[in-house]
Amino acid sequence: SVRLLNDLTFEAPDMPIKVRNIVVNQVLKDDGSDVRTFLSHVSDSQESSIESLQQTLNTMQNPPVITKIQYLDTEPRGVFGLKILGDALLKEEEGVSAAS
Fold it and tell me: Are 63 and 57 in contact (CB under 8 A)?
């Protein structure tokens, strides 16, 4: 990320780290031929993580509730990100209330 690059090169002006090459991984092909494989991998990984979390919660008294929300196109950061996350949570809550 740009932030990491700035941290490496400008954080300590007396000892900057030279950056000569940047490797970007998990880049999808332009023709979209690998999207299905990528999404399958992400979905399997999420499912495994949520299942592991649920198993841990099942051993607790009064465990917290897992609430799943839709995929957000950006990582929720700062006030704006928290607003988007809050809106998504309220939307999920309304959907559960309407279904009850």
Answer: yes
54-100 pLDDT, tens per residue?
Answer: 999 999 999 998 988 888 888 888 999 899 888 888 887 666 655 55
Closest CA to 22 of 2, 7, 42, 40: 2
Of 60, 84, 63, give the one whose Cα is nearest residue 72. 84
Amino acid at 75: E
Sign of CA dihedral 13, 24, 69, 60: negative
Question: Cβ atoms within 10 A of the Cβ of 55, count?
Answer: 9
What is the C-alpha separation between 47 and 79, in angstroms, rounded? Answer: 29
**Contact indicator for 26, 42 with CB cutoff of 8 Å:** no
Q: What are phi and psi of 57, to 5 degrees?
A: -65, -35
